[in-house]
Design a protein that fits this description.
By secondary structure, this protein is α+β, with helices and mostly antiparallel strands. Helix content is 16%, strand content 21%. It has a domain of 88 residues: 2-Layer Sandwich (Alpha-Beta Plaits). It is elongated, with a radius of gyration of 23 Å.
């Protein structure tokens, strides 16, 4: 059996509190630490190993060979789950997540980002 007035007291208690929301988009909210937003690609660190392609659960990353030691990294932001698996699996740290979250586009082609990269014979560090 329900207690009369229990819900009314709850409604009254919450009606005097300040709202828990912000006035978005007029007031931008700061994202918390470790927020996973848009992927940032550092072409100078990429070696073209395709581990990120293999580990991406939504197949949002493509590595397309253009020429010898030259390739394009294609990111499909419309497919991306923003899980960060590609960032975790990259052995050279060529991928990072940003705090950018406003990614909505009218044209789906604008959610396809192409980065041009070139792998080079970098000298190895001596111990």
């Amino acid at each position: 059996m329900r207690i009369p007035g229990k819900m009314a007291s709850e409604v009254l208690r919450h009606s005097v509190k300040t709202p828990a929301t912000c006035n978005y988009p007029h007031e931008k909210q700061e994202m918390p630490d470790k927020f996973r937003g848009k992927i940032i690609f550092k072409s100078e660190n990429c070696i073209g190993c395709k581990i990120c392609v293999r580990d991406c659960p939504s197949e949002a990353i493509e590595i397309v060979k253009v020429a010898e030691k030259v390739f394009d990294a294609v990111f499909h932001l419309d497919r991306c789950l923003y899980c960060g698996q590609c960032v975790e699996s990259c052995p050279k740290g060529a991928l990072e997540t940003s705090v950018e979250y406003e990614l909505a586009q009218i044209d789906k082609d604008k959610l396809r980002i192409v980065f041009h990269a070139k792998t080079g014979d970098k000298p190895t560090e001596e111990p």
